[in-house]
User: What shape does this take?
Amino acid sequence: MMTQVRECSVARTLELVGSKWTLLVVRELFLGSRRFEEIARFTGGPRDILTDRLRRLEAHGLVTRVQYEQRPPRFEYHLTDLGRSLAPIIETMREFGDRHLAGEDGPPARFEHSCGAEFHPVLACKACGEVVRRGEIEMVNAAT
Amino acid sequence: MMTQVRECSVARTLELVGSKWTLLVVRELFLGSRRFEEIARFTGGPRDILTDRLRRLEAHGLVTRVQYEQRPPRFEYHLTDLGRSLAPIIETMREFGDRHLAGEDGPPARFEHSCGAEFHPVLACKACGEVVRRGEIEMVNAAT
DNA sequence: GTGATGAGTTGGTTTTTCCAACGTACTCGG
DNA sequence: CCGAGTACGTTGGAAAAACCAACTCATCAC
Assistant: This one.
């Protein structure tokens, strides 16, 4: 019996945010951009694609479109709670880029944790709170 | 002066792993698949695209191609250290999917941390070790 | 010699993405 | 009132990417 495509949460997540420009739109919203023009300028994405991505994110409940002007009707975009829960994905991607793809000037943007230090994320185990190291995670078979 | 596209580590990371199927290939390698046939079967991706993604990952030093047979020449694929440092990205994506996109049966795969509990990652601050909550991160201006 | 396995490659179709230009509805300055 | 500017898209057509089934090539098992 030839086994099939793997059921996987990574794959499902990628269906939601895996197409080009989507995560850059989300990044912009995290950085505080709200309006179409800002998103277009800061991401550099084609306007029609950005429209599509915003509509799609809205349809999946990650973004809401909020009217901020009556005449002419204009909208801005906000992350929902669900959308904000993409933060760890964006942060770990930023960290990878900072560590491995930065030029001579270092990372192009810096962030600070409320503890006062420059922020760099690491993964911890939710249950025990310890920082996770290589080799500490193993897949367990869900089958009976 | 109209500001330009944002310099950003997230964007750089996406240039590396942002195209379709790339992260699913990486996921498969994390799960232990080594051979082309396994990667093709478990991801479900088109074979020509998978070939391209593997070559690209190799070119960027995330994957190595290792010959395991002379006649006919056959290769398997392994993550390099650099490739393994994509783990947090995959893990946070899996966690998002587990939390928000799982069906009635719950997540399709389970993992265990060496502490004995089922593994779910959270972000912690590398400097202080504390788990990060919403609103604790702020962008700081790198300019003088 | 027939069939199966493994790792691709090929040619042609379909789907996405890209881009510049356009449309609409206002506001502002003169 | 006129023209320019701003904001948020939409449109049509070209270019790039992805998709798919079928094929290759080498070897092994029967």
